[in-house]
Write a structure and sequence with these properties.
Order of helices and strands: EHHEHEHEEHEHEEEEHEEE
Distance between the termini: 53 Å
CATH class of the largest domain: Alpha Beta
Shape: globular
CATH architecture of the largest domain: 3-Layer(aba) Sandwich
Radius of gyration: 18 Å
Helix content: 10-25%
Strand order of the largest sheet: 4-3-2-5-6-13-11-12
Strand content: 35-45%
Largest sheet: 8 strands, mixed
Number of strands: 13
CATH superfamily of the largest domain: Vaccinia Virus protein VP39
């Protein structure tokens, strides 16, 4: 069976959980951020709670926004099952308006890169800054583009994830076929998720498409300055499959953690 995902987000909550069931290395980082935020925190692009729920379970006070009501409904269901509470709002990161101001606003897991133009990027940064308390900080986590890998984006499907299926005996395999526009800095992704049974035979196939606009480090610094941030720090970390560990020297293939303060 092949299904085109019709949701505003590129995957259903159940499929998202299957894809990222073993993507856990960044969660302790975000939990510590939220626990030590010295006030209320907001996760932008919280989806169905991959990061949000562990933060709440650790005792942090965290709200969430996401543009996909289906993902938020799944998050609410999970919160209720765990006896947790959070204010979840369906809104767009490019212009959300909430009644609270926050000590921390976080955008994990390259979610910021779903802004496909500089206008959208700046709109998101403005909205985040507007919702920070004085002295509060914005934390963005995103991959750092690797020019060598971008050249390989020729539309051929490549396996990016392959792990046991947490919902049934068998395997979840994720393949991405990317085409990158070096002028617009946008990668168009055609993702195929295959569910294999215990014998290795495919039982279900899901196909979805989405875009991401990569950002060079110097460009990211300029964007943050343009949005009104003056104090900025950047840190490189190993990838999600490599422990998400901090590094002394940043390399192109690393994950970048950007922190900007509202002074």
């Amino acid at each position: 069976m092949t299904t085109e995902a019709p949701q505003r987000y590129f995957a259903t909550p159940a499929l998202y959980d299957l894809m990222y069931a073993t993507t856990l290395a960044d969660i302790p980082f975000h939990v510590e951020l939220a626990r030590h935020a010295r006030g209320r925190a907001l996760e932008v692009g919280c989806g169905n709670g991959r990061v949000l729920i562990p933060c709440l379970e650790a005792g942090a006070e965290v709200d969430g926004i996401d543009r996909d009501e289906t993902m938020l409904e799944d998050a609410r269901r999970k919160l209720a099952a765990r006896g947790l509470r959070a204010q979840l709002t369906c809104d767009d990161m490019r212009g959300f308006i909430l009644p609270h101001r926050y000590a921390l606003v976080a955008i994990p897991f390259s979610t910021f890169l779903h802004n496909l133009t500089q206008q959208d990027q700046l709109a998101t940064l403005y909205a985040c800054r507007e919702h920070l308390e004085p002295g509060g900080r914005l934390v963005l986590v995103m991959f750092s583009p690797d020019p060598r890998r971008l050249l390989e984006h020729d539309g051929a499907a490549r396996v990016i994830l392959d792990h046991p299926n947490p919902a049934a005996p068998g395997t979840v395999r994720v393949l991405d076929a990317l085409l990158s526009d070096p002028v617009e800095q946008v990668s168009r992704v055609r993702r195929t998720v295959e569910l294999l049974d215990a014998s290795g035979a495919k039982t279900e196939t899901y196909v979805m498409e989405f875009g991401m606009r990569w950002i060079w480090p110097a460009e990211m610094e300029l964007l943050l300055h343009a949005a009104g941030f003056r104090r900025i720090a950047a840190e490189g970390r190993t990838g999600y499959r490599d422990g998400f560990q901090p590094k002394r020297a940043v390399e192109a293939r690393d994950v970048m953690v950007w922190t900007a303060w509202k002074d």
